Amino acid sequence: MSACVPTRAADPNRTERTHPPHSPPPGGPRRFRIAGADVSASIAVFLIALPLSLGIALATGAPLQAGLVAAAVGGLVAGRLGGSPLQVSGPAAGLTVVTADLIQRYGWRTTCAITVLAGLAQLGLGCLRVARGALAVSPAIVHGMLAGIGVTIAVAQLHIVLGGTPQSSVPDNLRALPAQLADVGLAAVSVSALTLALLLLWPRLPGRAGRLLRKVPAALVAVAGASAAAALVGLRLPKVDLPSWSNHALAGLPEGPVLGLVAAVLTTTLVCSVQSLLGAVAVDKLVAGRPGLPTGVRRSDLDRELLGQGAANIVSGSLGGLPIAGVAVRTSANVHAGAVSRNSTMLHGVLVVIAALLMVPILELIPLASLAALVMAVGIQMVSLHHIRTVTRHREVWVYAVTTLGVVSLGVLQGVALGIAMAVGVALHRLTRTRITHEETEGVHHVHVRGQLTFLAVPRLSRALHLVPHGADTVVELDGSFMDHAAYETLQDWQKTHTAQGGTVEITGRHPGTRISEPQAVTGCRCRPWTPWRNHQCDRPQSAPLSRNDRSGTDRTEPDPTGTGGASGHELVRGINAFQRNTAPLVRSELARLAREGQRPSQLFLTCADSRLVTSMITSSGPGDLFVVRNVGNLVPRPGEESGDDSVAAAIEYAVDVLRVRSITVCGHSGCGAMQALLSSEPGGVQTPLKRWLRHGLPSLERMADDSLPWGSLAGRAPEDAVEQLCLTNVVQQLEHLRAHDSVARALGEGTLELHGMYFHVGEAEAYLLTETDDGVVFDRVREADLTA
Predict the structure, then answer these.
(1) Of the spans 234-238, 376-380, 579-583, 728-732, which averages the highest pLDDT?
(2) Which of 22, 198, 493, 660 falls 20 to 30 Å from 699 in CA-CA distance?
(3) What are the pLDDT digits (tens) for 118-131?
(4) Which residue ranges are recorded for the region named Disordered (predicted)?
(5) What is the pLDDT of residue 570?
(6) Cα–Cα nearest to 118, from 302, 261, 281, 278
(7) Which of 20-24, 394-398, 467-471 has the lowest mean pLDDT?
(8) What is the pLDDT of residues 465-478, one digit of tens each?
C-alpha cells in the first residue's frame, strides 16, 4: 500500500467492500480481446515501420538488425508501459545524428550501453514526476533542433543516393559533395529517384482506384517498387545484409572518457525524452480532432510515458537495439488508421518480430540506395515551413535559426544550448524593450507606456513625466502586464507631487476605466474554502459593486443592467480560481483515491438548504466523509405520502442499503425561513410548490401545539421565541419520520445504524446535539454532550 494514500481505520461493524459502490458486481475473469480497428491500424503502422527502421539503422551506421530490435521493443515495451496509448515508439529520425556520432566515437557496444544508461535516467526523471518540465522548452528550440537534425540526415544520405559514402559531419559532407557529384553512380541514382518518385506520387493517385491504393503506405510502396525494379533490371547495388541473429552484438561495458560518456547519456536522454513528450502532447490533439472518438482513449500521462520510454530504452540497449523515442510518422498513421487502444502499438511490435525472424530473405532484396532516399525524404520533411512561419509570426525566428545552425555545425547538445541562450536573450530584450510616448490632446497630456515597466525603463519614464506641465490634467496609460517596485515608486511619487501642485492624474490600463494600482498585501489573508464570497476582500476589486442591505446579511444585489451576471458571475469565477489555486493542490491526492475507490461515507447528514450552513465547516469533514441531503426546512416526508418528490426517501434508501452509513443526522438551525413560513402560513390559498413541500412540516407544528409534550430546551435555557422552538421541535419530529422508513427501521433493528439530532445556532456559531431524557428533549453543546450516548 502506498504511503502517500490516506486510508480509513477498520470498522468491525462495517462490511468491507472490495469494489466501489457505483460499480457493477465483479463477474468472472475478463477475456482479452483485440478490436478490429486495432488490428488494421497495427498492420498499417507495421508496413511503415519496417522500411523506416532499416533506413534509420543504415543512416546511423548501426547493424541493420538494431533498427528491427528497436521497432519491436518500442511497440511491445513502450506500447504496454507508456502513458500515451496511441503513440508508437521506435527508432526515430530525430535520434539519427546523436546515435551516428556515438557509434563513430565509442563503437556499437558502448552505444548500446549508453542507451541503457539513458533509459535509467528516464526512469529517474519519471519517478521525480518532472515530465511536464520538458514542455517548458521553447517550441522554437525544439523545432530548430529537429530541423537541424533533418538537414544533417538529408546531407549525409545524399551521398548514398549518389552512390558514395557519407562523411562524419555536415561540413565534411558539404566539402565532399563536389567530388561526389563528379563521380555519380547511375544505378544508385536511378533506384533512389524511383523511390522518391513513388514516395511523392503515391499519395496523389486520383479517382476511386487511387483512394483504395492510397491505403497502402507510400513508404512501403516506394521501397518495394524500387527493389522490384532493381531486381528485374538486374542492377548490381549494395543491398540489405542481415547477418544471423546468433552473431547479433549486444550491449557491452561502456568504454571511454567519463565526461564524454556522461555528456552522451545526457544528450540521448534529452533528445529521447523531449521528442517523446512532445509527441504525446501532439497525439492528444490528433485524437481529440478525430470523429467518433471512443471514450476509452485517455489523455496522455506524461510521467508514465517517460517511465515507459525509459524501460524501452533499457530493453532495446540490452538487446543491441537503437535508442527509442516516440515517432510522429508512425503515431499519425496509427491515429488516422482508427486505433482505439494500446493494443495496436503492441501488435505492430509483434509483427516486426515475426518479420525479423521469417522475412529475412525478402528484406535482403532491398537496395541500400532506396532506404537512403527514404530517410533523406524524412529528413527534408523535418524542416517544416509551417514551423518556420509560426516562429516568425511569434518573433522567435532567431532562436530557431541559431538552434538549427548549432545542431548542423556543432552537434545536438551544443545546438540546443545555443538555442536556450538565444531564447533567454530574446526574453531579456523583450523585457527591456519599453516604448514610452508623450502627447497632448485637447489640453490633456497622455503618457503611454507600451511593454513591461521595469527599473531599466525608469529613466525614460521619468523623462516623459517631467514633460507634463504643473497643474495639467494627465492620463498615464500602462499597456503592459508587469510593473516592478522601482517603476511603481517613481510613478506614485510623481503622482503625489503633480496632484499637490493642482494637477490631476488618472492611471489606467489597456482599456479605459481599468485602474492600475500596486497589488494589495494578502499575507494576513485567512482564506478558507468556506470563506463567504460577498464578504471576502483578498481578491475583491475595489470597484466591485456592494450588495444592498449589506448590514442585514441578506444576499440581494443591485440588478445587472447588462444581463451578464455582474458581480455574482465575477465572484463565482474568483471563488473557483481560489479553489484551484489554494485548495485543489491539498485535496487532489485524496480525491484521486476516492475517484478510484468510490465513495464510502460514514454518515448521512440531512440539513436545510440555507446558504449559511456549511456542512464541511460545521463537522470538520472532508471529501468522502458525509453523504449530504439538503432541502428547505430539513424535512423528511413520511413514507407512503403523496409528496410528488421521492428524492429524500431515495437518498435515505441509497445511503442505508447501498452505502451502509453508520449514522444519520438531522440538523436544524436558527432563523430557519421554512419554520417562519410554517408559523405564518394560513390554510387555503394557492398551492404553490413551496406550500406543497412545507406541508411535510405540519406534524412539527402539531407536535409543538400539543401541551402534553414538553418543549425542548437549548443547553438548559428555554427557546428564545416560537421560531426557535419550532426549529428544535422539527428536528425531533423529522427523526420520527425517519424511523418510519423501512430501510432505517431494519438497520436500527440490526444495530448497524444510529440516529442523531442536531441544532446549529448561526449567530453564535454553536452546535448542539439532541439528548432525549425522562424530563424531555434537551439540546446540549457538543463539548458538554456525551457523544457515546
Answers:
(1) 728-732
(2) 660
(3) 999 999 999 988 88
(4) 1-30, 533-570
(5) 67
(6) 261
(7) 20-24
(8) 999 998 899 998 88
CA dihedral (348, 353, 359, 362) in degrees, to 10, reads 60
Three cell numbers written together for 321: 537495439
Note the helical H segments in 301-437: 302-318, 328-336, 343-358, 360-363, 368-381, 385-393, 397-409, 412-432
- Residue-wise pLDDT tens digits, 295-338: 456 778 889 999 999 999 999 999 999 999 988 778 887 887 77
What the block records as the C-alpha cell of 757 is: 439530532
| End-to-end C-alpha distance for the chain, whole angstroms | 36
Query: How buried is 598 (Cβ within 10 angstroms: 0-12 exposed, 13-18 middle, 19+ buried)?
Result: middle
Residue among 529, 535, 673 nearest 615 (CA): 529
Cα–Cα dist 66/191, whole Å: 24
Measured CA to CA, the distance from residue 763 to residue 723 in angstroms comes to 15
The one-character DSSP state at 453 is B
CA distance 236 to 255: 38
The total of other beta-carbon atoms located within 10 Å of residue 320's CB is: 23
- Backbone φ and ψ for 435, nearest 5 degrees, come out as -105, 125
Q: Provide the total of helices (H) and of strands (E) in the chain, helices listed first.
A: 30, 13
**Helix 397-409 vs helix 139-161: angle between axes, to the nearest 10 degrees?**
40
What is the C-alpha separation between 708 and 695, in angstroms, rounded?
Answer: 23
Residue 71's identity, in one-letter code, is A
Within 16-148, strands assigned E span 89-90
Burial string for 36-73 (b: 16+ CB within 10 Å, else e) reads: ebbeebbebbbbbbbbbbbbbbbbbbbbbbbbbbbbbb
H or E element, residue 571: helix 566-578
